[in-house]
Amino acid sequence: MLDIVLFSALAAAGVLIACIALALPRRVHEADELNKVIATTTDLRPPTIRQRVTQPFEALADRSSQRRRLNGGLTLGEHLIRANLKWRPSEFVMIQVAFLIGGALISLLRFGFGPQFVISAVGAYLVPMRYVRYRQARRLKALSRQLPDTLSLLSNALKAGLSLPQAMETVASNTVAPIADELSRVIREMNIGSATERALMNMVRRTGSEDLDLIVTAITIQASVGGNLARILDSISHTIRQRVHIKGQISAMTAQARASGWVITLLPVIVATILYFITPTYFRAMFQDRLGIELLIVAVLSVAIGNFFIRRIVNFRV
Questions:
Q1: Is residue 84 left, alpha or beta, with left meaning phi > 0 and alpha meaning psi from -120 to 50?
Q2: Do 242 and 280 lie in a common domain?
Q3: Fewer CB within 10 Å, N or C, the chain?
Q4: Digit-coded pLDDT (tens) for 91-130
Q5: Domain that holds residue 206
Q6: Rounded-to-integer distance, Cα 278 and Cα 281, Å
C-alpha cells in the first residue's frame, strides 16, 4: 500500500512541476513584451477580467499549439473553430485544468490518496477535449447534409449569370449554419484582399470535410483550366447525394451491431464503477490483490479488443 501512495504522490508532483515549468518562462517573456507595448502605446486599454483570468494559461496554450503544429496536427484554436466554440485556447486550457483539479479533489475526498487520484484526474482532464470532438463530429455531419442543396443553389446562381463570389454571397444569405457561417467568412476574407482559392482552402481546413475539399479542388482546377463550373457543381452535388444516401443505408443496417458493441463495451465498466462507489470494500480487492489486478488488466484488454473488431466490422468508408 505504501508503494502505491508513493507512486501517486510522485505522479501528482510531476504533473504540478511540469505545469509550472511550462508556464513560468513564457509568462515572464510575455510580461516583458506587454511592458514594452505599454511603454510605447498611450491608448492601450487595460486588460479585462477575462484576460486577467486566462493570462496564466496562455503559455500552456501556446506551447500546446506549437507542439501540435510541429507534429502536423491542428492547434487548439483550430480545434475550437471546428467545434464552433467561441473560446480562446487559453480559456480551454483553463477549463481542462479546472476539470483535472475537480476530478482529483472528488477522488481524494471519496477514496483518499491512491491510484484512483491519478486516474480520476487524468480522466477528468480528457473530458473537455472529448466534448470538443463531439461538437466537431456533429457540426461536420450537419455540414455534410447541407452540401448537396448548397451546391444546387450555387449552380443555379452561376447559371443566372452571377460570378462565383456573388453566388457564394447569395447562397450564404439564403442558407443556415454551419454552411452559411463558413461562406460568410469566405466572403469576408475575399473582401479584405484574400484570393478566392486561399479563402476556400481556409474553409476546408476549418471544417475538415472531405466533400468540401473535393468541391474546392474542382473550383480551383476550373479556375486554372476553364470549363462550365455550374455543370461541374451539379455533377459533384449528384455524387455527394448518392454518398449521403449510401451512408444512411449503411448506418441503418449496422445500427444494431454498433449498439451491441457499445453495450458490450460499457456494461462492464458501468457495473464495476457502480460497485466501486456503492460498496468500496467489496470491490477493493480487485485493486489491492495481485490476482484481482491481473484479472482487471485481462478484462480491459479483452473489452478493448472486442470493441476494436466490432468497430472495424461496422465501419465502412464510402
A1: left
A2: no
A3: N
A4: 888 888 889 888 888 888 876 776 777 888 888 888 999 9
A5: 140-248
A6: 9
